[in-house]
């Protein structure tokens, strides 16, 4: 079996359908399909009576790109929402909330026998294994207004406002902020060093760690693990990267901005839950998304975006482009045994 075939085959095992009466391990296997910043998967699942706590794995912080752990908590929100939707699809009453006490900060997911998914939610769980961050050129087609309305509704369930920008000037204005953020990051040696430490140069490398940013998932060729960092230094250039981001955004139907109700870990996790619900609604409708968070990761650009969008003192949490893109290789995941705490 070729490396590529065994890579996709091994990851496809994560997509096995949930049994009608899933064990906690079945549900957590699905939860690991959630998105996370740099694919760090910064979660630890701790089973407890009546549910499971999702704890931050602080050894997986990315302090340069995410100094206040905003993305870390958003990622935990992604895992929580994926778990909630998977459980509800099998008739388990599930919900998640931020908890902070002597036991630390965490997301508490309650799982109890009861009513399952509301009828209008069933397609979200079915889309979990098909959701991807699709970092490719899209085909320029607009997404339908009904999908925009649905994403707004899904985000609102978590107290998160979803803005959709598709008018050319509005998109170009945000693109300028994205490019300014991209430029600042590429010029920042600490950012580039941190990014490189999460890059996975080939299938074998990605499978060995089970995490990080697999070259193929960003449309880049694989290279031997020793050669990858050398080639990266040669090709990772401001002009080329900015051109790529600009073409990708201009090929999209529009941009999505998520704005949570509060600027704290609870709000950041809510932004992750809102992303997950909206992204699954988009996936169910055949659309694709990719994050363009450069404009919220660099503080000066985040302030510029906030002013541009008239958000007052509210923080723009996550920014995505949406449209219709081609299938892309998937990103690796760590085994359940590495993220599930026992006893
Ligand atoms: C909070 C957060 C921030 C992210 N920021 C970016 C980003 O700026 N650029 C990007 O290409 N992907 C970004 N991602 C996507 C992750 O890299 C992606 O979820 C991960 O590699 C797993 O791949 P998947 O989404 O296809 O499952 C982000 C994801 C999360 C949850």
Summed up, the domain count is 1
Can you tell me the residue ranges where pLDDT is under 50 for at least 5 consecutive residues?
Answer: none
Strand content: 15-25%
What is the N-to-C order of secondary-structure elements (H for helix, E for strand)?
Answer: HHEEHEEHHEHHEHEHHEHEHHEH
Topology-level CATH name: NADH Oxidase
Oligomer state equals single chain
Q: Which shape, going by the Cα principal axes?
A: globular
Largest sheet: 4 strands, antiparallel
List keywords for this structure.
four-stranded antiparallel sheet; alpha+beta; NADH Oxidase; 43% helix; 10 strands; 343 residues; 14 helices; binds flavin mononucleotide
What does this structure look like?
The protein is an alpha+beta fold and 343 residues long. It has one domain: NADH Oxidase, CATH 3.40.109.10. Helix content is 43%, strand content 17%. It has 14 helices and ten strands. A four-stranded antiparallel β-sheet has the order 1-2-4-3, with helices on one face. The chain has a four-stranded antiparallel β-sheet with strand order 5-8-10-9, sandwiched between helices. α3 crosses α11. The protein starts with a helix and ends with a helix. The relative contact order is 0.18. The model has no long low-confidence stretch (mean pLDDT 96). Bound molecules: flavin mononucleotide. The site of flavin mononucleotide (FMN) has 18 residues, from α3 and β9. The site of flavin mononucleotide has 18 residues, from α3 and β9.
């Amino acid at each position: 079996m070729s490396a590529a075939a065994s890579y996709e085959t091994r990851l496809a095992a994560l997509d096995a359908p949930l049994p009608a009466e899933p064990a906690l391990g079945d549900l957590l296997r699905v939860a690991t399909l959630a998105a996370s910043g740099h694919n760090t998967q910064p979660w630890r699942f701790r089973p407890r009576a009546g549910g499971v706590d999702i704890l931050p794995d602080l050894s997986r912080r990315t302090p340069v790109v995410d100094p206040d752990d905003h993305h870390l908590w958003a990622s935990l929100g992604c895992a929580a929402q994926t778990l909630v939707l998977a459980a509800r699809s099998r008739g388990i009453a599930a919900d998640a909330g931020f908890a902070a006490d002597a036991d630390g900060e965490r997301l508490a997911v309650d799982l109890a026998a009861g009513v399952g998914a509301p009828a209008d939610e069933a397609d979200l769980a079915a889309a979990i294994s098909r959701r991807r961050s699709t970092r490719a050129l899209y085909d320029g087609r607009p997404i339908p207004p009904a999908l925009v309305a649905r994403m707004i509704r899904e985000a609102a369930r978590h107290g998160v406002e979803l803005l959709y920008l598709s008018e050319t000037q509005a998109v170009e204005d945000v693109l300028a902020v994205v490019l300014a953020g991209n430029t600042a990051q590429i010029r920042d040696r600490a950012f580039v060093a941190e990014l490189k430490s999460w890059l996975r140069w080939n299938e074998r490398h990605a499978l060995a760690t089970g995490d990080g940013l697999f070259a193929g998932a960003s449309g880049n060729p694989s290279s031997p693990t020793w050669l990858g960092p050398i080639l990266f230094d040669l090709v990772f250039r401001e002009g080329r990267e900015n051109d790529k981001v600009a073409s990708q955004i201009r090929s999209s139907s529009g941009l999505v901005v998520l704005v949570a109700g509060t600027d704290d870990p609870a709000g950041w996790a809510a932004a992750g839950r809102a992303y997950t619900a909206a992204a699954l609604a988009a996936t169910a409708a055949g659309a694709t998304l990719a994050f363009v968070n450069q404009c919220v990761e660099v503080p000066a650009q985040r302030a510029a975006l906030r002013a541009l969008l008239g958000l007052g003192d509210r923080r723009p949490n996550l920014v995505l482009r949406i449209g219709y893109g081609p299938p892309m290789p998937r990103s690796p995941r760590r085994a359940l045994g590495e993220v599930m705490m026992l006893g």
